[in-house]
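Q: Sequence in, structure out?
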Amino acid sequence: MIKMELLLFVFVLVVMAATAESKTAGKPGCQLNCGSVDIPYPFGIGPGCSRSGFELSCLTSGSGVAGPKAVLAGTSIQVTKLSIETAESQVILPVGWQCFNASQPKDSNGNWSAAATEMNRHGVYRISNTNNMLVVVGCNTLGYTESLRTEGGSYGRTYYTGCMSYCNNSDSAQDGQCAGVGCCHVDIPPGLTDSSVNFRDYDHSAMLDYSPCGYAFLVGRSNYTFRRADLMMDRNQTMPVYLDWAIRDNGSMSCADAKDKPGYACVSVHSECVDSINGPGYTCKCSTGYEGNAYVDGGCTNINECAWPNTQKYPCYGICLDTDGSYECRCHRGYQNSGDPKEQACSPKFPLAAQLALGITLGISFLMVGLLVTLMMIQKRRLNEHFRKNGGSVLQKVENIKIFTKEELKKITKNNSEVLGQGGFGKVYKGILEDNTMVAVKSSIEVNDARKEDFTNEVIIQSQMIHTNIIKLLGCCLEVDVPMLVYEFAANGNLQEILHGDNSHRIPLPLDLRLDIAIESAEGLKYMHSSTNRTIRHGDVKPANILLNDKFIPKISDFGTSKLLTVDKDFTMFVVGSMGYIDPVFHKTGRLTQKSDVYSFGVVLLELITRKPTIYDGNCSLLIDFQKAYEQENSGKAMFDKEIATKENMFILEKIGRLAMECMKEKVEERPDMKEVAEQLVILRRSRKAKQGNHRMNPQPFEEISNEGTPFSLGTGLSASSYGSVSAPSTPANNESSNL
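A: Exactly. Output:
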């Protein structure tokens, strides 16, 4: 019995394989595919392998392209899909554009015009009006389609549909919106024979900075979504376009005229002719009950409906028997049906044995269903318990954050398939939201009743901080044992990796970029200290907690040690943070203040201008060595990063170095606050830009950070010898080198 079932299974596989092969049948001895594109007749590659007008070429990697790649013969137009069932093909066509500038008011793209001419030299193709749309991108730009001249028309081209997009200003166009502002789209009529477009532009000269070009292109309806960045689209951009094809030779005859004429294309037995609905001509298909290639002799073969995986297409509520071009359906033995078993189920005749068998089967089924329901209830109870333990009752009321379910998080991270890094509490994963926004998903602390308030407090703090230079918390998942936090994605990792990482992360950093990073990081901390509804201290400022996005804009992150500035929470029994960055006053007393963050930021400033970690060259202390340099030479020149220690940069570097030492003064009251630090850095940048711009007037004077030659007492709390013995750069709980 088992052998018989195995043979039947093998037979079904053979039949299905033969059926699949017949669908893409080509002429004997001809190439059946090119790369991932199947080549069914009437298409073909090489002499005698295709019908006239359906010739293709297969370009290999040796042809200067990433091959193999199917193209329309004699052209460079790539073919990505061919279908004889729907008489459709998909090709890649260039975008039409027209650009403007001061020296040459108009500069147009000729590639799309050439491609339009090449595409339909034999008149086989029409642009699919059901699958494509015309899109115009630009400001004050009118684009419309052109096609071959209509018979008897007075123009060289036939002009069809179009639309006009406009812009009020550089911010008026919105991502995902293509309704006339920066982008418009319109349906196209049937009958288009090529992809040519034309332009009319109005008052375009005033918008050269953010929209120097107008673009127009045909594209599949589901293959394009407008982004404001497309106003500066790559001129070599291409788009997928669907084509309708048909047999259009012999005067583009209809089915009624073609059947008795030489060259009739529907040659297979059990084939039918269908008049084209997009232009003149006809197509061929296999008759009902058959499948395959109607353009090949013997190409239409019987469908085995009984082996078809989709039972809804060929339903049978009994025993299925395949016939030529159809199938029969009969009730099983012991069952009966007053109607057709294809339409309704057969009912048992119910002998005693059948009733016993049915009772046993139903009993087992009910038991399995009950067990499944029980397991689902247990799982639901476990999820609810995690949700409660992780503070869900409080956090679900917090604004600005989304509570993700466990299943949603699996989908976002593709089941944790891509790891970005290793954090202090676990791994950080890359994720993608439904709107294609990239995010970073990281583990938080393991929450129990004692830690619940700390965790919810951290999430609430972060949800209230909305600032360009603070990493944005988008949401969290509480239905897991250890809660997961979903943050905005920082493509360039953290400042620790950029400054001190291996060669894969270490990149050239000009002084202007370092100054921008310092200023914007200071702005983020200033916002935390004074610009939010509830003043916040970070408590662990260090390069590893300064993330950088794809434009190197810094984002302050990791608020696990943040505390609300309230009277009863100035002190903590647990001093946490990273050695080398902890405020000595906080380390000795447990008192965390805003000036504690100022001290840590001073260390970050030193690392930015020296590109040295707090412990470098084995056992050297950056803080102590930098202070010694000023005590001995009244300058930090010997410590500055050689990459930026040029003559023209020395003034700025000295000022930053002295500002860093001001931040790290031992006496808390002598340190500046973050607002003052940010203002001093902004003044330095303004002075530098004024000097770089060759202004004749002197730069605006600014307050001296320190008197030359005045000794500084850094608040290290350690002597040179004792500090030099420190070997660990940070405490294990906060040593994160991941994206977050």
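The longest strand covers residues 157-165.
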